[in-house]
Specification:
Layout lengths: L5 E6 L5 H13 L3 E6 L9 H8 L13 H17 L2 E7 L1 H8 L6 H8 L4 E5 L3 H5 L1 H12 L3 E2 L3 E4 L5 E5 L3 H21 L7 E6 L4 E2 L5 E2 L6 H12 L3 E6 L14 E4 L3 H12 L4 E4 L6 E2 L20 E2 L3 H7 L5 E8 L3 H11 L4 E6 L11 E8 L4 E8 H22 L1
Parallel strand pairs: 1-2, 1-3, 3-4, 4-5, 8-11, 8-13, 11-12, 13-16, 16-17
Antiparallel strand pairs: 6-7, 9-10, 14-15, 17-18, 18-19
Helix pairs in contact: 1-2, 1-8, 3-5, 4-7, 9-13
The protein binds ligand PMT.
């Protein structure tokens, strides 16, 4: 962690705004330097002077509050300076209105403008009336913000100012400060370990395959590619060379600057060929794609005409790419996935053994909000060492980084056991 981590503390306009003063103090006691930004409505609850006295720094309240033309220019770009000078952005209390603005990229004051200009980790501590907290709109905004990788410090349950009992009370300042410390530490760790995949070549499969039934129809599944693309981006961030074999997805291709080599394929047969063509170069292989298990070996050249009679299709098994890679693995680390609706761990362990994987990432795809086409996932890592590691629900990006964290540890464990 750098000598002093600078934290921008955004204060929203809620009855709990007064607790932000305790939070500012708790952060400073942990060695953070704190720059306070307030929304106009926050000033109705706590005077900026309170924070200025606490932090010894000017409190930034709104975008254009200057007197002279020069000051106007300074204040107009000051949110950029704040976004650049701080390593972590914390918003407490984060009101329902603020959460909505952040989720949808609105920027009509200093705090929301700074948020859009900020590229580092964000910690949000919501506080509001229980009914507002439970409202579908608020929960949808929180889902968007979680999927963006922001840390949400869940509100406490209890008697709220409005007299209702339930969730919505701002978490205790010490709890929020601890969450900020953990973000700072993990950020510092990642900063130092960020290049921990340098020199590796990671071969990743992602997305569905499409198996033609005739020239206009095909068999496929609901894979969006998000899990595989998140793995590719995480590996690239950490210094690896990445070869991404992708079935047909609507995701944007990785930025050219990422250096990720994208190989688009359509069918399981094409995916197999692409994997085998690049296997030699790979040191790590991760098979996140939802490969069709069956296909029509020789689809007709003409569209099948509709009749009143039942249509029966004979489908043949597709090539089992994971099993074939398992046979040719060598000293590569091989990670398979298991998309199950029951018997998750048993099925994952069976796949790990039968396909010679070192790790299987098991996800219960019947669970709402995770798995296919979701922004988040919840997995259990089943390792060749016999260990099973549950990974709680998080963004697919966070899950991807955790998978790499555990792959690096696993390879060390396997090599030292040799
Ligand atoms: O793409 P998203 O929308 O983000 O969804 C993510 C996901 C749910 C697709 C992903 O997390 C996941 O579970 N991927 C594996 C899906 C799958 O096909 O699971 P499976 O249990 O049917 O296959 C087991 C393993 O064998 C997988 O690694 C698969 O890539 C591989 N396989 C399967 C069939 C086949 N013919 N060849 C293979 O290599």
């Amino acid at each position: 962690m750098p000598v002093t981590t600078n934290v921008a503390l955004g204060v929203g306009g809620g009855i709990a705004a007064y607790k932000a003063a305790e939070l500012a103090r708790a952060l400073m006691e942990r060695g953070f330097s704190v720059q306070v930004l307030m929304t106009r409505s926050a000033e109705e609850f706590v005077r900026p002077l309170t924070f200025a006295a606490l932090t010894g720094r000017k409190v930034l309240t709104h975008l254009f509050g200057a007197v002279s033309p020069e000051d106007t220019l300074d204040s107009a770009i000051e949110h950029i300076r704040v976004a650049q000078e701080n390593q972590i952005l914390v918003i407490a209390p984060a009101t329902a209105d603020l959460l909505a603005k952040l989720a949808h990229g609105m920027a009509d004051d200093f705090l929301t403008t700074t948020y859009l200009a900020f590229t580092g980790p964000v910690v949000l501590a919501p506080a509001m009336n229980t009914n507002m907290w439970n409202h579908a709109a608020t929960q949808e905004n929180l889902r968007i913000l979680r999927a963006r990788g922001h840390v949400i410090v869940e509100p406490d349950e209890g008697i709220l100012a409005c007299g209702i009992v339930g969730p919505g009370r701002l978490a205790e300042p010490e709890v929020i400060a601890q969450a900020v410390s953990e973000v700072a530490l993990s950020g510092a760790n990642r900063a130092s370990a960020k290049r921990d995949l340098e020199g590796e070549t990671v071969l990743i499969t992602a997305g569905p395959t499409q198996e033609p039934l005739d020239p206009v129809r095909y068999l496929s599944n609901r894979s969006s590619g998000k899990m595989g693309y998140a793995l590719a981006e995480a590996a690239s961030e950490r210094g690896a060379r990445v070869i991404l074999v992708s079935g047909p997805v609507t995701l944007a291709a990785p930025a050219l600057s990422s250096g990720i080599e994208l190989i688009p394929v359509r069918t399981a047969v094409e995916m197999r060929q692409a994997v085998m063509d690049h296997l030699e170069q790979a040191t790590l292989v991760i098979k996140a794609a939802a490969v069709a298990d069956y296909h029509r070996a020789n689809p007709p050249q003409q569209k099948v005409k509709k009749t009143a009679a039942r249509l029966s299709l004979e489908l043949d098994p597709t090539p089992d790419i994971l099993a074939e890679v398992g046979r040719k693995k060598g000293d590569r680390l091989l990670v398979g996935f298991a998309a199950e609706t029951e018997n998750l761990i048993e099925e994952a362990r069976r796949k790990m053994q039968s396909k010679n994987c070192d790790m299987v990432v098991a996800n219960l795809v019947s669970q709402p909000g995770i798995g296919f086409d979701s922004d988040e996932n919840e997995v259990t890592l089943v390792l060749r060492t016999g260990e099973t590691i549950p990974v709680e629900r998080a963004s697919k990006s966070a899950i991807a980084h955790r998978i790499f964290d555990e792959m690096i540890k696993l390879r060390l464990a396997l090599h030292s056991a040799q």
